[in-house]
Design brief:
With about 80 residues, this protein is an all-beta fold. The protein has a single domain, classed as Beta Barrel (conserved putative lor/sdh protein from methanococcus maripaludis s2 fold). Helix content is about 0%, strand content about 35%. Strand 2 and strand 3 form a beta hairpin. The two termini are about 25 Å apart.
């Protein structure tokens, strides 16, 4: 998970989860640990395997907002120019 996916409100840490059946986001409280040497963030609890975490625009979303995931670049799209 990218560090930009994590945001804080007061003393609580959250991420946005995308629900593919409703196309909406919901914020989820998570517990994290920081690896000072590597500059990495690990989520200790709050997520389940297979959930889609929003990694862009997290400070502009609101609970229940409808969103559309970006398409993955095609394998033949060299340097992602298409």
């Amino acid at each position: 998970m990218v560090g930009t996916a994590i945001f804080h409100e007061e003393t609580t840490t959250y991420v946005w989860i995308y629900n593919p059946s409703t196309h909406q986001v919901e914020n989820r409280k998570v517990e994290i640990t920081l690896d000072g040497a590597g500059g990495r963030v690990s989520v200790r609890s709050g997520l389940s395997r297979g959930e889609q975490v929003v990694t862009a625009g997290v400070h502009y979303l609101v609970e229940g907002q409808k969103v559309k995931p970006l398409q993955e670049p095609a394998v033949t799209n060299i340097r992602e120019v298409l």
